Amino acid sequence: MDFDLSKKYEPKEIEAKWSEAWVNADLYSAQENTTLPPYSIVIPPPNVTGVLHMGHALNNTLQDILIRYKHMNGFATLWVFGLDHAGIATQNVVERQLKAEGKTRQDIGREKFVERVWRWKEESGGQIRHQLKKLGASLDYNRERFTMDPGLSAAVQEVFVSLYKEGLIYRGEKLINWCPRCHTALSDLEVEHEEGKGKLWHLRYPIHGTNEVLIVATTRPETMLGDSAVALHPEDVRYQALLGKKIILPFVNREIPIIGDEYVDRQFGSGAVKITPAHDFNDFEVGLRHGLPRYNIFTEDAHLNELAGSFAGLERFKARHAIVAKLEEMDLLEKIEDYPTSIGHCYRCKTVVEPYLSMQWFVQTKGLAGAALQAVKDGRTKIIPEQWQNTYFNWLENIRDWCISRQIWWGHRIPAWYCECGEIVVSKQDITQCPVCKSSALKPETDVLDTWFSSALWPFSTLGWPDESSPLLKQYYPTSTLITGFDILFFWVARMMMLGLHFMQEVPFREVYIHALVRDAQGHKMSKSKGNVMDPLHLMEKYGTDAFRFTLAAFAAQGRDIKLAEDRVEGYRNFCNKIWNASRFIIQAALPHAKTDLQNIPEASSDEDQWILSEFFQCVNSVKQALDDYRFNDAALTLYHFFWGTYCDWYLELIKSRLYGDDLQAKQQTATVAVFILDQALRLLHPFMPFLTEELWHLLAKREGRYLFQAAFPQVPQENILGTWRLSDQRINKLQKMVSKLRQIRTETGVPASQKIAVWVYLGKGNKAEIQSLEDRMIELGRAQKITYIDQKPSEPVAKGVTGVDEILVYVPLTGLIDIEKEKERQGREIKRIQKGIDAVSHMLTSPNFAQKAPPELVQQKNQEKQELEIRKSEVEEALELLK
Fold this sequence. Notes:
Number of helices: 29
Shape: globular
Helix content: 40-55%
């Protein structure tokens, strides 16, 4: 074997080699009809228009860790890959292409437009597939699904028709989110709310039959033309005499009632609010309670219609200015105030969304929601972290009917036909004749289904349903785990629960892990407008995919957002280099002398070898427990500390003298243990760092046709084996503490690392024979001249350290080693410098202006800075004390 390995890990070529090899070897295809226990995940399907962003990177890294971990532990795994057709987003992409050609979709017609979208999908869509392969995602690419492929289309039709026949899908006129530019209804998720500064207009509404007015506050004066009532809180003592009276609505001279409703917030404005059921969701509900008429005053492109009288034809915001000006002219404008607002925008075209009264298709959700609610309450599905359960419960307990129709051309056309006789026919097959009047003059529904409708079937439609004989469906449903962001807990997770339980009579997944957001280093949400977006592809290219993946995992703590900075990825790139160089050392210095059997735990007689075996299997136990509990950060950091700290910094240093010594038996035994631990550690690291570990695992041994994905994950041996290593474990721990204290003394007193030191040991309760057995290693690792045992405290200047075991003290005589007085002066200056920094930060934190105006993350940062300075001051003071 060629041992001439590069001194630096170069990820690009290695990543490209293994990414291609894994796919060519068909590693990730799910097994059918196997007796192995199943473990399955369905990918939250990325949009066919999408590219890999930070949310995708985190989400898919965590899923890949679980799939690799479970597969190596003997599970038959399936990670379903697929793409969402993303109705509005994809239609917008193709419409922009047409616009560049001077055309619209109306110019070419629906049929040719849909053909063109399919062509775009085949040619350009799905680039995220290639990016996920670059990430190392172990998806079953051979079973790729698309929410508009024939199988999923059949599932969509089956579900729609079944729900319609059960009375759970209906058509009706209700208030929905409407995009005036895209000319379609939107789901709540497709509406992005932006906080901003708005106005609160106080309008004077004349009271019928009096000379009095009622002051009504509104953030949308243009909708007054659609008012059906003015509402007061029924217990508001200011207005008791007005309940039941009427208002004369300006401009349209419509008489509208003054009603009492507990919805009214008495603290908002004057305590009187206008009720516009056709243009406000809360007002719509008030209107239902009081039987109010609905006046839709807008056209589909948000211009005022004929009900607006003289304002008809004006665009909504121009109408606002015109109406306010006219009110002021008529002395019906009381005042205008600044007021914070949250305005909804279409997630694709950024147009301000309009609450709009429209005839749409809906799913009646209350009946479906009950089963989804109960499944989490009784533990059939577990949501992690648990705090998200209450959010899930709250949404399902207050659920509204789901608007599932969209007025676009790309998507699943609703399988309904309209007859002139008024009959609506819903069918999985095309209808040519009305079943009631036998007319053939049927018009097909032109609306398509909400993208989330097909996505809600994802856990079972991707496995072959409605063909209930599908081997995949039998083997892998219900799926094991769903990993997703909190932002689609309602719009996707809850809907999958509702439809999975309804059609499969079983939950769609056993556990749902909700991951947090990836934010910038200051904790701000990433956005293009802020210019703080980090590109995962750039970070992968610059630092390597393994370093990027490990960074995400290391910061993926439950319930806490990830603050990502590029230097953190760089830090874990250094960890990759550490793994590479440690492996390079083992391959060159240990592998030639090791026994080739890497399947069984090797014989170990030395303290070092028994200790590393004990430490390793403790690490295995901790990693397995952390991954089972979705504590990805704990698993990653345990691996980091074991490999860098325990294995590299201690074990490899401890065994060098044996590897380079003349005792061939000792050399072979230690070399075998060192290679075994490296082999097992690479398996342990593989779910986090697939590329680097695969390369090194193959360098360790000839493994043609085998891959780490297929290798066994390390298993903790029985207690009787672990027990044999415990004494060595204790002895090496004592050695570590003594050497660490010597190294600390060197650092704190300024003794150069290259200079050998005398060491005096006061044994306390320690066993002299045991400590003497560690002398050689202590001299080597502590760079000591010799070890002298003493019975009392030395009289000359020394640096003292308490080792933390058996009351053992270590002393380093300083006479002739350093200039003691000069070192005292230096450390005294350092204490003053640190204290100056503490005073400055303390002054800032106690300043009233800072406490009131500074962002919370800055206050937290300054508190942490103060704490770190105080710790550092304490360390220097302790070092100074040693010199006295």
